[in-house]
Amino acid sequence: MKSRIVIKCGGSTMDQLPPEFFQTIAQIQAKGAELIIVHGGGPAINARLKQLNIEPQFADGLRVTCAQTIEVVEMVLAGTINKQLVRALLSAGASALGISGMDGRMLVARQTAQPIGLVGEIEQVNPEPIFHALSGGYIPVIAPLGLTALADQALNLNADTAAGAIAARIRAEKLLMITDVPGILQVRNGEKQRLAHTNPIEIERMISTGEIHGGMIPKVRAACSALGQGVKEVVICQGTTADLLAAAAGNPVGTSITAETPITGGAKR
User: Pathway listed for it (predicted)?
Assistant: First the structure.
Protein backbone atom coordinates (compact mmCIF):
# COMPACT_ATOMS: atom_id res chain seq x y z
CA MET A 1 0.00 0.00 0.00
CA LYS A 2 1.24 3.49 -0.88
CA SER A 3 2.12 5.91 1.90
CA ARG A 4 -0.89 8.19 2.50
CA ILE A 5 -0.30 11.58 4.12
CA VAL A 6 -2.73 14.43 4.81
CA ILE A 7 -1.11 17.88 4.87
CA LYS A 8 -2.94 20.77 6.50
CA CYS A 9 -1.74 24.24 5.49
CA GLY A 10 -2.87 27.02 7.80
CA GLY A 11 -4.16 30.28 6.40
CA SER A 12 -1.47 32.22 8.25
CA THR A 13 1.25 30.28 6.42
CA MET A 14 -0.09 30.66 2.86
CA ASP A 15 1.97 33.70 1.93
CA GLN A 16 5.05 32.18 3.56
CA LEU A 17 5.14 28.96 1.53
CA PRO A 18 8.12 29.25 -0.86
CA PRO A 19 8.34 27.60 -4.30
CA GLU A 20 10.50 24.91 -2.66
CA PHE A 21 7.51 23.76 -0.60
CA PHE A 22 5.52 22.92 -3.72
CA GLN A 23 8.55 21.44 -5.48
CA THR A 24 9.10 19.13 -2.54
CA ILE A 25 5.43 18.10 -2.58
CA ALA A 26 5.82 17.27 -6.28
CA GLN A 27 8.97 15.27 -5.51
CA ILE A 28 7.21 13.25 -2.81
CA GLN A 29 4.23 12.61 -5.09
CA ALA A 30 6.57 11.44 -7.86
CA LYS A 31 7.99 8.84 -5.47
CA GLY A 32 4.54 7.29 -5.16
CA ALA A 33 3.09 8.77 -1.98
CA GLU A 34 -0.61 9.63 -1.87
CA LEU A 35 -0.91 13.21 -0.63
CA ILE A 36 -4.02 15.13 0.38
CA ILE A 37 -3.89 18.85 1.19
CA VAL A 38 -6.47 20.61 3.37
CA HIS A 39 -6.06 24.38 3.62
CA GLY A 40 -7.27 27.33 5.60
CA GLY A 41 -7.48 30.96 4.56
CA GLY A 42 -8.31 33.12 7.56
CA PRO A 43 -6.19 36.20 6.75
CA ALA A 44 -7.46 36.31 3.15
CA ILE A 45 -11.05 36.02 4.38
CA ASN A 46 -10.48 38.87 6.84
CA ALA A 47 -9.00 41.06 4.13
CA ARG A 48 -11.92 40.45 1.80
CA LEU A 49 -14.47 41.10 4.54
CA LYS A 50 -12.84 44.42 5.35
CA GLN A 51 -12.93 45.38 1.67
CA LEU A 52 -16.69 44.84 1.87
CA ASN A 53 -16.90 46.86 5.12
CA ILE A 54 -17.77 43.75 7.16
CA GLU A 55 -15.85 43.57 10.43
CA PRO A 56 -14.54 40.03 11.12
CA GLN A 57 -15.82 38.63 14.42
CA PHE A 58 -14.62 35.69 16.48
CA ALA A 59 -15.84 33.80 19.54
CA ASP A 60 -13.56 31.31 21.33
CA GLY A 61 -11.29 31.21 18.30
CA LEU A 62 -14.08 30.42 15.83
CA ARG A 63 -15.25 32.81 13.12
CA VAL A 64 -18.75 34.17 13.64
CA THR A 65 -20.30 33.41 10.25
CA CYS A 66 -23.43 35.26 9.15
CA ALA A 67 -25.12 34.88 5.75
CA GLN A 68 -22.91 37.58 4.21
CA THR A 69 -19.77 36.10 5.73
CA ILE A 70 -20.41 32.55 4.47
CA GLU A 71 -20.58 33.91 0.91
CA VAL A 72 -17.14 35.48 1.37
CA VAL A 73 -15.75 32.37 3.07
CA GLU A 74 -16.96 30.19 0.21
CA MET A 75 -15.60 32.58 -2.42
CA VAL A 76 -12.16 32.89 -0.82
CA LEU A 77 -11.65 29.30 0.34
CA ALA A 78 -13.11 27.37 -2.61
CA GLY A 79 -12.06 30.04 -5.10
CA THR A 80 -9.05 32.28 -4.56
CA ILE A 81 -7.00 30.27 -2.03
CA ASN A 82 -7.82 26.85 -3.43
CA LYS A 83 -6.87 27.80 -6.98
CA GLN A 84 -3.70 29.60 -5.88
CA LEU A 85 -2.52 26.37 -4.26
CA VAL A 86 -3.47 24.29 -7.29
CA ARG A 87 -1.60 26.64 -9.63
CA ALA A 88 1.48 26.56 -7.42
CA LEU A 89 1.45 22.75 -7.33
CA LEU A 90 0.98 22.46 -11.09
CA SER A 91 3.79 24.95 -11.69
CA ALA A 92 6.06 22.83 -9.49
CA GLY A 93 5.31 19.72 -11.53
CA ALA A 94 2.74 18.06 -9.26
CA SER A 95 -0.68 16.84 -10.38
CA ALA A 96 -3.36 18.56 -8.29
CA LEU A 97 -7.14 18.88 -8.29
CA GLY A 98 -8.94 21.59 -6.30
CA ILE A 99 -12.22 20.75 -4.59
CA SER A 100 -14.16 21.73 -1.48
CA GLY A 101 -15.76 19.66 1.24
CA MET A 102 -19.14 20.36 -0.36
CA ASP A 103 -18.23 18.57 -3.58
CA GLY A 104 -19.69 15.08 -3.69
CA ARG A 105 -21.04 15.66 -0.15
CA MET A 106 -17.53 14.97 1.08
CA LEU A 107 -18.04 16.76 4.42
CA VAL A 108 -21.53 16.56 5.87
CA ALA A 109 -21.95 18.76 8.92
CA ARG A 110 -24.50 20.11 11.34
CA GLN A 111 -24.64 23.70 12.48
CA THR A 112 -22.90 24.11 15.81
CA ALA A 113 -25.05 24.80 18.85
CA GLN A 114 -22.87 27.80 19.71
CA PRO A 115 -24.38 31.18 18.73
CA ILE A 116 -21.81 31.83 16.01
CA GLY A 117 -23.89 31.44 12.87
CA LEU A 118 -23.15 29.17 9.92
CA VAL A 119 -20.30 27.21 11.47
CA GLY A 120 -20.38 23.43 11.22
CA GLU A 121 -19.40 20.36 13.18
CA ILE A 122 -18.51 17.42 10.93
CA GLU A 123 -20.91 14.48 11.15
CA GLN A 124 -19.72 12.39 8.22
CA VAL A 125 -16.82 12.19 5.78
CA ASN A 126 -17.55 10.67 2.38
CA PRO A 127 -14.11 9.71 1.04
CA GLU A 128 -15.15 8.82 -2.51
CA PRO A 129 -14.19 12.19 -4.09
CA ILE A 130 -10.78 11.90 -2.43
CA PHE A 131 -10.22 8.33 -3.60
CA HIS A 132 -11.30 9.24 -7.15
CA ALA A 133 -8.75 12.06 -7.24
CA LEU A 134 -5.98 9.83 -5.83
CA SER A 135 -6.74 7.02 -8.26
CA GLY A 136 -6.39 9.51 -11.11
CA GLY A 137 -2.94 10.50 -9.89
CA TYR A 138 -3.98 13.85 -8.40
CA ILE A 139 -3.35 15.53 -5.08
CA PRO A 140 -6.80 16.59 -3.85
CA VAL A 141 -6.57 20.16 -2.53
CA ILE A 142 -9.55 20.57 -0.20
CA ALA A 143 -11.23 23.75 1.03
CA PRO A 144 -12.83 23.21 4.49
CA LEU A 145 -16.48 23.83 3.67
CA GLY A 146 -19.31 21.49 4.56
CA LEU A 147 -22.93 20.91 3.66
CA THR A 148 -25.87 20.18 5.92
CA ALA A 149 -27.45 16.74 5.51
CA LEU A 150 -30.18 18.14 3.26
CA ALA A 151 -27.52 19.92 1.16
CA ASP A 152 -29.40 23.20 1.56
CA GLN A 153 -26.78 25.15 3.51
CA ALA A 154 -23.03 25.67 3.24
CA LEU A 155 -21.17 25.68 6.57
CA ASN A 156 -17.80 27.09 7.54
CA LEU A 157 -15.54 24.39 9.05
CA ASN A 158 -12.40 24.62 11.15
CA ALA A 159 -9.60 23.52 8.82
CA ASP A 160 -7.68 21.66 11.54
CA THR A 161 -10.78 19.67 12.46
CA ALA A 162 -11.56 18.96 8.80
CA ALA A 163 -8.02 17.72 8.17
CA GLY A 164 -8.17 15.45 11.21
CA ALA A 165 -11.55 14.00 10.22
CA ILE A 166 -10.39 13.38 6.65
CA ALA A 167 -7.13 11.78 7.79
CA ALA A 168 -9.05 9.43 10.07
CA ARG A 169 -11.66 8.47 7.48
CA ILE A 170 -9.16 7.64 4.72
CA ARG A 171 -6.87 5.86 7.19
CA ALA A 172 -3.90 8.12 6.56
CA GLU A 173 -0.63 7.03 8.10
CA LYS A 174 0.26 10.58 9.03
CA LEU A 175 -1.29 14.03 9.36
CA LEU A 176 1.10 16.96 8.92
CA MET A 177 -0.06 20.28 10.31
CA ILE A 178 1.97 23.04 8.68
CA THR A 179 2.16 26.16 10.82
CA ASP A 180 4.40 29.17 11.43
CA VAL A 181 6.22 27.59 14.40
CA PRO A 182 8.50 24.51 14.40
CA GLY A 183 6.18 22.56 16.70
CA ILE A 184 4.77 22.77 20.22
CA LEU A 185 7.07 25.06 22.18
CA GLN A 186 7.87 24.85 25.89
CA VAL A 187 9.82 27.30 28.01
CA ARG A 188 12.84 25.55 29.49
CA ASN A 189 15.79 27.25 31.16
CA GLY A 190 14.33 30.61 30.18
CA GLU A 191 14.05 29.89 26.44
CA LYS A 192 11.51 28.33 24.11
CA GLN A 193 12.34 24.83 22.98
CA ARG A 194 10.51 22.50 20.64
CA LEU A 195 8.85 19.47 22.21
CA ALA A 196 9.88 16.51 20.05
CA HIS A 197 7.14 14.08 21.10
CA THR A 198 3.96 14.09 23.15
CA ASN A 199 0.63 12.31 23.54
CA PRO A 200 -3.04 13.20 24.22
CA ILE A 201 -2.73 12.94 28.01
CA GLU A 202 0.21 15.33 28.09
CA ILE A 203 -1.54 17.66 25.65
CA GLU A 204 -4.56 18.02 27.95
CA ARG A 205 -2.23 18.73 30.83
CA MET A 206 -0.41 21.42 28.85
CA ILE A 207 -3.72 23.02 27.83
CA SER A 208 -4.83 23.12 31.47
CA THR A 209 -1.56 24.78 32.54
CA GLY A 210 -1.61 27.28 29.68
CA GLU A 211 1.53 25.89 28.04
CA ILE A 212 -0.62 25.23 24.98
CA HIS A 213 -2.92 28.14 24.21
CA GLY A 214 -4.57 30.20 21.47
CA GLY A 215 -4.59 28.82 17.94
CA MET A 216 -2.52 25.79 18.94
CA ILE A 217 -5.44 24.37 20.95
CA PRO A 218 -7.69 23.46 17.98
CA LYS A 219 -4.66 21.98 16.23
CA VAL A 220 -3.74 19.63 19.06
CA ARG A 221 -7.39 18.76 19.77
CA ALA A 222 -7.89 17.85 16.11
CA ALA A 223 -4.67 15.83 16.32
CA CYS A 224 -5.93 13.88 19.34
CA SER A 225 -9.28 13.24 17.65
CA ALA A 226 -7.51 11.88 14.55
CA LEU A 227 -5.35 9.60 16.70
CA GLY A 228 -8.46 8.31 18.44
CA GLN A 229 -9.91 7.35 15.07
CA GLY A 230 -6.91 5.43 13.79
CA VAL A 231 -4.33 7.91 12.48
CA LYS A 232 -0.93 6.65 13.64
CA GLU A 233 0.87 9.97 13.95
CA VAL A 234 0.22 13.72 13.76
CA VAL A 235 3.16 16.05 13.19
CA ILE A 236 3.14 19.80 13.80
CA CYS A 237 5.94 21.50 11.84
CA GLN A 238 6.83 24.42 9.58
CA GLY A 239 6.81 22.51 6.31
CA THR A 240 10.34 23.26 5.18
CA THR A 241 11.86 21.02 2.53
CA ALA A 242 13.76 19.19 5.27
CA ASP A 243 10.55 18.81 7.30
CA LEU A 244 8.55 17.39 4.40
CA LEU A 245 11.23 14.96 3.25
CA ALA A 246 11.85 13.74 6.80
CA ALA A 247 8.13 13.26 7.46
CA ALA A 248 7.62 11.38 4.19
CA ALA A 249 10.59 9.13 5.03
CA GLY A 250 9.25 8.44 8.52
CA ASN A 251 12.03 10.36 10.26
CA PRO A 252 11.53 12.63 13.32
CA VAL A 253 10.53 16.23 12.63
CA GLY A 254 8.62 18.98 14.44
CA THR A 255 6.46 17.78 17.30
CA SER A 256 5.24 14.22 16.83
CA ILE A 257 1.94 13.37 18.55
CA THR A 258 1.06 9.72 18.98
CA ALA A 259 -0.95 7.63 21.42
CA GLU A 260 2.29 6.45 22.99
CA THR A 261 3.86 7.72 26.19
CA PRO A 262 5.98 10.80 25.38
CA ILE A 263 9.75 10.56 25.46
CA THR A 264 11.10 12.17 28.64
CA GLY A 265 13.07 15.32 27.95
CA GLY A 266 12.12 15.42 24.27
CA ALA A 267 13.15 19.02 23.64
CA LYS A 268 14.78 20.45 20.58
CA ARG A 269 17.80 18.45 19.52
Answer: Amino-acid biosynthesis; L-arginine biosynthesis; N(2)-acetyl-L-ornithine from L-glutamate: step 2/4
